[in-house]
Amino acid sequence: MSATTQTDDPGVGTAEPARPAPTTGRTAGSLGAMVRAELTKLLRRPATWVLLGLWPALQLVFSTVIPYVSYQRGATFEGLPPEVLLASMLPDQLVLNSLSGLPLFGGALLLTLGALLAGSEYGWGTLKTLLGQGPRRLQVLAAQLLALLVVLAVAVLVSFALTALASGAIAAGESAAADWPTVGRLLRGLGGGLLIAAAWGALGLLLGHALRSTALPIALGLVWVLAVENLIVNVAAPLLGAFDAAQAALPGVNAGSLVAALAGPDAALRTPGVAAIVDGTQAAWVLAGFLVLFTTVTGLLLTRRDVV
Amino acid sequence: MPPAQAVGVRPLVESGPGDEVVVIAGLTKRYGPRTVVDDLSLTVRRGEVYGFLGPNGAGKTTTLRALLGLVRPTSGTASVLGRPAGSPSAGVGALIEGPGFYPYLSGRENLRVLARYAGAPAGRVDAVLGTVGLTDRARDRYSTYSLGMKQRLGVAAALLKDPELVVLDEPTNGLDPAGISDMRALLRRLSADGHTVLLSSHLLGEVEQVCDRVAVISSGRLVVESSVGELLGLRRLVIEAEPLGEAAAVTTRLLGPERVSVVDGVVHAQAGPEDAARINRALVLADVEVSGLRQEAQTLEAVFLQMTGSELAAAGPDPDVPPARRTGRLSRISRRGAAR
To answer: What is the pLDDT of residues A263-275, one digit of tens each?
Structure first.
């Protein structure tokens, strides 16, 4: 301790001590302050930048860079001839090319972020430290979720911005038409992208809090997103009617359907996981339902279980 | 009750009714078939430094967690500052079972995060960093801290809200002797400033020096709750004499059976120096050859070991306290748990 604490003269216990007024009488900070605290944690954490940087980067590579290289070589890409391939990279396809990775690899990365955010609190013993400062458990969850929504919204915006830059450059370079989406369509795209990202992030939070660790939630989440849903949609559903009906309730299927709906009827859906299996409006409601469900279950787990 | 004899024992803080900061009544916590805390009751009064002692696995940390609302009791009640345990309170700061911080943040950033959760002014961060002597390393990442520095940061976090009640679970873990001395000074200063401190520690020498009262628990049950002065006031005479049986019998007639025991070929008597001449005279009159009669001071560690039947193996020996010998049974103190 500091020199100022070195006094060994206790001078205590002999009289009623005159206790100074506490510097704070508040039981806990405001929700806004807690969200800022969570944002500090998220933004100073290297894993956040890796995961949130990886998704827009991969999105850009797979939706624009590789198709453009393929177009330049005059080759077909995923069965699309060069002229169709070029059209799929132009500005009017901005919404699709900004979001097409979200139902699959983007979802996996954002789920991982949510699981890390929640699970590490147990591994590092920081949840008990936070709760020791006076907030209610649901306040901690609300702050985590709101901070996660903020960074996911920024990530969606970054994905749109990068894709816009790339498609604008391609349109200029190829002397093609630069028909940008309308503001309304852009806003719907941003909102839909945030809804999909939030549902995956909330699932990650749920798994992290439920399993109180990071490795197992991430592993389970990745297996679900990348393997189980694919097997159900591509293997089980064509064979068995029950799975065909059940796939309409899967988060990945609804994410893919929402992206397909946001892309418009004429879009070339060439990204795995993006398919119009259910109606876009229904997909949005189902994803919103998942967001509420995941958050509610997380809240129940957090408030009803001991923090050990 | 005799006054405290040992050097460094703090006088008992006078408290009146209604001055209870922590009241635990019949607290029980079970995990499946395992009872971790068993019908525990104790009271911490305003302004005192209260030692909470027990062997590893005795249920100390679970009790402290229950006080903070981190675990729910299976039965019983606990209140802190007049409110049910776990209620949001500005008046409690705690370090429970080691510090937990974000390894990629600096010490200062960690405290800023906590200050935002606590609603504490930003200025408190640097104040508490200064209090625990971490100002110079405040900008370094927590992952680079030594165990002792992590412990200090944990104490700093507990002080962020300038709480009325400070709960510290093994705050000296990982501290070097200088750090332990600093922690002792800090505890005294907290008490002098009017804070109530609930301290769980294995370092019984430290507890002996800074605590007003202690509770000892074993296997989740309260063994004793008493002032340190009361516990250390139980002085002991060691009598070396032949024949041993006759010496024990004579001493027992004088003091009563509950105050006399025979251990390792000597008679142990719970008695002070004022009794020594009387005992010696009685032994000589009974034709007992007395070859040695000496006073042995009690230490908190010796008392602790007698009560819990425990070796502090896991915690390691306390360098400040000479090795204690196991002796006979204590009496003259409330032994609620032992009677169960």
So the answer is: 887 777 777 778 8
Distance CA B97, CA A77 (A): 58
Instruction: Give residues 28 to 57 of A whose Cβ lies within 8 Å of B.
Output: 28-30, 33-34, 36-37, 40-41, 44-46
Query: What percent of chain A has a predicted confidence (pLDDT) above 70?
Result: 91
Q: Which two tokens stand for residue B289?
A: 């050859």
Q: Same structural domain for residues B227 and B244?
A: no
Chain pair A-B, CB pairs under 8 angstroms? 200
A57 in a structural domain: yes
- What single string gives the DSSP state of each residue in B62-92? HHHHHHHTSS--SEEEEEETTEETTS--TTE
Domain holding A254, by residue range, is 46-304
Q: Which of residues 291-310 of B touch A (CB under 8 A)?
A: none
Distance from the Cα of residue A103 to its chain's centroid: 11
Token pair 């995990």 is at which residue? Answer: B31
Residue B260 pLDDT grade (very low, low, confident, very high; cuts 50, 70, 90): confident
User: Which residues in chain B are contacts of A125 at CB distance < 8 A?
Assistant: 97-100
Answer whether B70 touches A (CB < 8 Å): yes
Which tokens hold the place of B155?
């104490």
The answer to whether A263 and A93 have CB atoms below 8 angstroms apart is yes
The answer to the question of residue B292 being in a domain is: yes
Cβ contact (<8 Å) for A4 and B130? yes
Check A19 against B109: CB less than 8 A apart: no
